[in-house]
Write a structure and sequence with these properties.
16% strand; four-stranded antiparallel β-sheet; 11 helices; alpha+beta; 532 residues
Length: 532
């Protein structure tokens, strides 16, 4: 009978703890990152005759599922990648937005219309002014689009630094929590906070958490950033910008292929032109190449470039500015015949990535994947759009100027594009006749695109911009559906349901009252025995 008192008391204790945990669940129903708690109990060792010895309170645990949690974190990270890309691409789509009476397509059409009007009356000052106005608008609008894209790249560079700082801050917070766990044990509130930080971290990068060992290990893109609980390697930004290097093979500029007096022309970005007379009758080798090197080295317009001979006596012209910012277009011709660059020439390129302790991260998801991808020339939509605008500008200069004895534009890219307003009044009837035909020509070659027109080329660019947005938006919607499905399943398992908790509360209260009645009954039985 005395044992019944102890059994009932263990039941009272278990019920009391259960009521406390239920109360805590209800109180934290709306607490961010809170995972529902459950009381763990087990039967105490049996007494004689296998009657039992009551219930043991074995502690409080969180209702979570590591497999489901890891899947949710991974899929949420992929959704963050598409969200960041959607933000970037959608903002660019707005830049290229076209209306019926505005936008670059309208400006391009107005430019050709002004040529057509002047063709009918070549000496009309009003038409000349209109052509000047439309030509300058064309240049300004192209450069405005290019400038907006540059601003986007600059903004992404800022976001990159901010997000990397956030990643390192989260990692430091996780390490701090791990130190607290080492000191006080893995309490449920600390585990909740660490889970919340892990999910926040996955918005930026793809992570992997190793729970197989006794210590906490966290990887970003397969590289350890936290290991043995508190050892931390921070994430850094890795920039490897490649300078453009034009290489002309030794044989293409060999002295024996030329004669004294041959005219050498060196043009920079289709704007600055240097002319010199070849002198190859000396006894020294590579005299022509050395002449070109000396001319480039001594001209202030070429101050951002270095010319030299490599170990194979190839002429090399290299930008002193690394990356896309230092890209250039230098053309060398002899007696009007252009010298081709070697296939070993190197194009300007920007490479941006993340690294951990000199290990480059191959990001699979997260917003930082989208940012680094757009800042890297080979994978960037933005640089692709800028390249299309440069091809448009370069072809505009070449085709317009080749159709007229009087040049209207200079430059080889959007940045170097310039309209020569003083030349409008010098356009002849033949010039205007030839220029007017450009608008209707559909067999132009613009960049790598053949059999196109200026209007069609730009429309294809607009289609590409919109298509990229739509494709990414579709992937984002699909990914969000996956995340929502996983999140619903995970929340049903881990989040507090107030209705369920109220039912539990009634059950635990009834169990508490039942155990209390047992104690009362045993007490009355004992009183009866003592009174006999």
């Amino acid at each position: 009978m005395i044992n019944s008192l102890y059994i009932a008391k263990s039941g009272l204790d278990a019920s009391k703890y259960s009521v406390d945990v239920t109360s805590n669940n209800i109180a934290n129903e709306n607490t961010d990152g809170y995972v529902k708690r459950v009381v763990n109990t087990s039967e105490l060792s049996s007494l004689e005759d296998n009657i039992g010895n009551g219930v043991s309170f074995d502690g409080v645990t969180r209702t979570t599922n590591s497999y489901l949690y890891d899947k949710l974190v991974a899929q949420s990270s992929l959704a963050s990648y598409y969200e960041q890309e959607d933000s970037i691409l959608s903002s660019i789509e707005i830049m290229f937005d076209e209306a019926d009476d505005s936008g670059f397509s309208t400006i391009l059409s107005n430019f050709f219309d002004s040529i057509e009007s002047l063709r009918e009356e070549p000496t009309n000052l009003i038409y000349q002014n209109e052509l000047s106005t439309q030509s300058q608008l064309l240049v300004n609008n192209l450069q405005s689009l290019n400038s907006d894209l540059d601003d986007t790249l600059e903004s992404l560079n800022t976001q990159l630094q901010e997000q990397v700082n956030s990643v390192n801050d989260i990692l430091e917070q996780i390490v701090y929590l791990n130190k607290q766990m080492q000191q006080s044990g893995e309490t449920n509130d600390l585990l909740d906070k660490r889970d919340a930080l892990e999910k926040e971290l996955s918005n930026y990068v793809d992570i992997e958490i190793n729970r197989d060992s006794d210590t906490y290990n966290l990887k970003i893109s397969g590289v350890n950033v936290i290991f043995n609980d508190t050892n931390l390697h921070e994430v850094s930004i890795n920039e490897e910008n490649i300078a453009q290097k034009d290489i002309y093979s030794s044989s293409s500029l060999d002295d024996s292929n030329f004669s004294d007096g041959d005219e050498i022309t060196i043009s920079l970005n289709n704007t600055t032109t240097l002319t010199l007379s070849a002198n190859v009758s000396g006894t020294d080798e590579n005299e022509l190449k050395q002449q070109i090197i000396d001319e480039i080295s001594s001209n202030s317009n070429f101050s951002n470039y270095t010319a030299y001979l490599d170990s194979s006596n190839n002429l090399v012209i290299k930008s002193n500015i690394k990356g896309e910012e230092g890209s250039f277009d230098i053309g060398i011709s002899v007696n009007s015949s252009e010298i081709s660059k070697s296939a070993t020439s190197i194009e300007a390129e920007n490479n941006v990535s993340l690294a951990v302790y000199n290990n480059e991260l191959s990001l699979a998801s997260g917003s930082l994947k989208a940012i680094t991808q757009e800042l890297t020339t080979s994978t960037s939509n933005i640089y692709s759009y800028k390249n299309s605008l440069d091809e448009f500008a370069s072809s505009l200069v070449d085709l317009v100027n080749s159709s007229s004895d009087t040049p209207l534009f200079t430059g080889s890219s959007v940045d170097t594009l310039n309209f020569i307003s003083d030349n409008v009044s010098s356009l002849s009837s033949d010039d205007l006749e030839n220029l007017s035909q450009i608008q209707w020509s559909t067999n132009l070659t613009i960049g790598s695109t053949s059999n196109t027109s200026f209007s069609e080329f730009y429309q294809n660019l607009l289609v590409t911009v919109s298509s990229n947005v739509e494709n990414n938006s579709f992937k984002l919607d699909s990914q969000n559906a996956i995340v929502n499905s996983l999140e619903t399943t995970y929340n049903n398992l881990t989040k507090v349901d107030s209705d369920e908790e109220m039912i539990n509360l009634l059950q635990f209260q009834a169990a508490y009252e039942a155990n209390a009645k047992i104690i009362t009954a045993v007490d009355e039985m004992l009183q009866t025995l003592l009174a006999m």
